[in-house]
Amino acid sequence: MKDIKLLTTYEQLKALSDPFRSQLILRLMEKPQTGQQLSEVFDLSRARIHYHLKELEKNELVEIVKREEKNGIVQKFYQSVAGGFVADRTLLPNSGDLSETVRQMMVNMLERSKMRVLSTPEEALQEETGSQDPTDWKYLSSAFEIKATEEDFKAWQKKYYELMDELADIQKKNPTENAKLYYFHSLGIQVDESMFDRKRSEEVES
d(Cα 64, Cα 62) in Å, to the nearest integer? Predict the structure, then answer.
């Protein structure tokens, strides 16, 4: 699976802007699954699942990565072709559809993150230190609003990805038995109104 795939056709853009297909893509970014497995996850018929899978496959957004025979039936395992997607500049005239595609992917990613939080083990949420410094906690849960130029944001974002690679490399180079699996979800977008400032002003008025 590639890290990023370039979307070069309007059909690919439309396929990803479909709410349900973007949910399928996110599932198949995590691990390969069959149509039967996905039909059980989404409680939909196999025929309906296969219809959407074929549309995604036709647009080169998912692919069959392995086949297994079970009870005389060949099962096809589908996987997303990439861990992320970005639109080619030639698609910019369709900016409305492009924005909706990105928005839909973000919303579905938030839903997946919500499910991961709800299923996280209890011990991961038990903070025994009593520290008021969030950097001492064994979990990360924060929201920020920061004013910055687009150039400064992009420069910081580059450092952020480098930092994530640095953390991942620690166990790759020197694996230990006490290492735990951590799930990260980051979201950084421009907004028009500060919710934090509004909340503070509402508290003062009350």
Answer: 7
Q: What is the pTM of this model?
A: 0.73
Looking from the CA of 61 toward its CB, the CA atoms found within 13 Å total 31
**Can you give the pLDDT at residue 70?**
82
Q: Does domain 5-94 have CATH number 1.10.10.10?
A: yes
Asked whether the predicted pLDDT for residue 97 surpasses 60, the reply is: yes
- Nearby residues of 21 by Cβ (< 8 Å), 6 or more positions away: 15, 52, 55, 56
Question: Rounded to the nearest 10 degrees, how much is the dihedral formed by the CA atoms of 189, 194, 195, 196?
Answer: 110
Among residues 37, 7, 5, which one has the least CA distance to residue 24?
37
Per-residue pLDDT tens digits for 55-64: 999 999 999 9
Q: At 78, which helix (H) or strand (E)?
A: strand 73-80
CB 131 within 8 A of CB 137: yes
Each domain of the chain, given as residue ranges in start order, spans 5-94, 127-205
Determine the Cα–Cα distance for residues 162 and 55; give it in Å rounded to an integer. 35
Give the relative orientation of helices 10-17 and 95-118 as an angle to the nearest 10 degrees: 40
